[in-house]
Amino acid sequence: MTGSEPIILLVEDNEVNRDMLVRRLQRAGHKVATAGDGEAALTAMREQHPAVVLMDMNLPVKDGWTACREAQQDSSIAGIPIIALTAHAMEEDKHRALEAGCSDYATKPVDFPDLLTKIAAQLDAHH
Amino acid sequence: MLTTEAVSQLRPRLSLRGRLYLFSGAILILFAINVGTSLWGSFARNESLIAYQEAVTAAQLTAELEQNLQNKRQQVLVLATLRETTDEPLDAAALGQAFADLEIITERLRQLGGFGGEDLEAYYRRLHDSITALLAEWRQFYDGYNEAMPLSDVESAVSYNDTQQRLQELDQRQSFVAVQRANAIDATITLTDQITVIGFIASIAITLALVFAMIRSTNASLTRMKRGVERFGSGDLTYRIDAQRDSGEIGDLARTFNDMSTKLQTAIEEMNTARADADSANAAKSMFLANVSHELRTPLNAIIGYSEMLQDELGDGVQIDREQFHHDLATIIFSGKQLLTLINDILDLSKIETGKMQVSREVFSPAGLLVQVCDALSPLLLQNNNRLTLDIDKDSMRDMNSDRGKLQQIVTNLFSNACKFTKDGEITVSARMTEDALIVSVADTGIGMTQAQQDRVFEAFTQAESNTGLKYGGTGLGLAIVREFCAMLGGRITLESQPDQGSLFQVTLPADPTSAPAGA
Fold first, then answer.
1. Pick from A52, B52, B81, B303: CA 20 to 30 A from residue B36's CA?
2. Which of B213, B235, B267 is the last residue of a domain?
């Protein structure tokens, strides 16, 4: 990565939730890019090389699990950490996300300070 | 001797009791044969003893008779000589003695006649004739002894010699017959002894063969039983004993065991089915909870997220953008209401599932209700820029007796679905009444559904696609509730749809379920 400020890519199809998280992340001092579906997320990852991806799993066009697996296959973006973000709160949902290649997992409603900690951990781990 | 093949052919036909009877019967028959031959043998020995005794007695009698005759003849000859020389008469005592002697000879002859049977009959008859003649001559001699007249011959020489010869012949014949009888009896004794020995050996052999056959066949039956019990016991529930191969008690036992196996198998299968049902009901419950959790979290995410964000913004001390603030609050309120709707839907569904949902009937105007619902929901049309056509056949419409609240919810759910899945299109709500039913349709020109999606769309928490809720909102409970309400009101709902061609939901409800069933 270059010395420029790291970008966080937020993949979320629900406008209300996307808007809310973008504003909160920006207020926390992050530079945020967005995508509305799994396919757009992969494109954005290739083009913008975000430092961390926050990915909702229930996505139109291409769901989060598929997008994660495809990201693992693409060597140019395979190293980008993905934090799964979903309203599925069961233990097996967590396993399912981690198996798909996610680095971490957060449930909705988002515990924002906790999410910031997880983002920071991923940034530290990869820089 | 029974061969093993013959025994194995016998096996299927004979019951255990039959086998035991056969076994006992065979041994009894063998025993009886042995006893019979043994009796026959001892009878023959007895016969032989009697025959020897008779032969000895007869020989003795013959010898005595011969002796008597000899004595008497000498006496007669001496007397005859005396008479000629002395001419002295015999006194009465001597005469009496002489006649008594003759009587003894007669008696001996009579006794001898009791022996011998047919074989000796002719010999005896000749001897009898000869002795009778001799005795008559002697009797004549004694009668005429004291007479003065001269004696004729004491006897004709022929008579005595003849008698002597006849007696000898009889004696020889007696010996011959006795030897013959003895030979015959000896042969019989040999035969019965042989039969007895053979009988015993055969008895032992047949008894051993029967024991062997019985052990073998009974053992085979019991082995089949044992194998069946073991196989079934180790979990092979479909295994049945080959009961055809056994008749009688063991066959009955095998059949009874098979019956029991069938019943047990049925019971176990029923139990497994019940357990599978319970498991799948449990799984459905878990699924339901997971879905509820998911659905509740989505609006809560917005509510909590926006509230925290507004709280942070207030704490910053930065100038508040009042318009943005108002919009954010509206988002929170909208999400809260969505949450409330969701909770109500879940409660409704739960009530329906537990059978606690009540139907409260009243008489009302369905036309009025439809107009009212469409009015109240008209703001939804604006979201996706849709137009509404309300087509109520006023001529056919009249009051109906049903649950007003449930009809209102049915129409509300169908209407809001149509608004959700249609963009820049047309939504048509139409209603008419037949003789006994109200028919309401909600048609749209929206995204429609494939056949597979139509098949699932009335199930709780199921939307056409797993991401439909996120894309279009909704809980996936609305149509499930609509279907349940229709059923509770005695009606039904049908769906016609094609992808990108829109959907048509048609509800048919009985106008008055107390008077007549809903039209088909």
1. B52
2. B213
